[in-house]
Design goal:
Pfam families: CVNH (PF08881). Keywords: Signal. This is Cyanovirin-N. InterPro entries: Cyanovirin-N, Cyanovirin-N_sf. By secondary structure, the protein is mainly β. It has a single domain, classed as Cyanovirin-N (HIV-inactivating Protein, Cyanovirin-n), CATH 2.30.60.10. 13% of the residues lie in helices and 44% in strands. It has one helix and ten strands; from the N terminus they run H-E-E-E-E-E-E-E-E-E-E. A three-stranded antiparallel sheet has the order 1-2-3, with no helix packed on it. Strand 1 and strand 2 form a beta hairpin.
Length: 135
């Protein structure tokens, strides 16, 4: 009986943790003009469903809090500041469902520029109508 209770608790904990990682495209409005980039193209804006099934207010996420520039390559990094010192510029977004591809021109350690892509759907979560970076 004790073993069954521990197994159930562990299973629910694992499911809850993995269910909230990435996958924002499944519950956010990806119609043209509803999920966009603003400012210097490092702010992701969208409308996402809340846990009650209703649409929330517009939510914004500064991608500098999610992405870093690792020698000219976009990487998932908490507080990565990928745009710092003009590290990455020329950003744009494209929907290639299930991927939401974010592309940028990034400088490597030598100062050369190269194009890099990352799937935002794998690193951004909709948490009750609010976009958040996975940690």
């Amino acid at each position: 009986m004790k073993f069954s209770s521990i197994t159930t608790t562990l299973t629910l904990t694992i499911f809850t943790t993995t269910a909230l990682c990435g996958g924002f495209s499944e519950s956010c409005d990806l119609e043209v003009g509803r999920t966009t980039l603003t400012g210097d193209a490092s702010i992701l804006r969208s409308y996402c469903k809340r846990t009650d099934g209703e649409w929330g207010e517009e939510t914004k996420l500064d991608l500098d809090t999610c992405l870093g520039n690792d020698d000219g390559k976009l990487v998932h990094r908490e507080n990565g500041d990928f745009t710092e010192n003009d590290g990455c510029t020329g950003m744009y977004l494209r929907s290639d469902l299930p991927a939401i591809v974010y592309t940028a021109s990034c400088r490597d350690f030598k100062g050369d520029v190269r194009w890099s892509e990352i799937d935002l759907n794998g690193i951004i979560t909709n948490r009750d109508g609010v976009l958040e970076c996975d940690t």
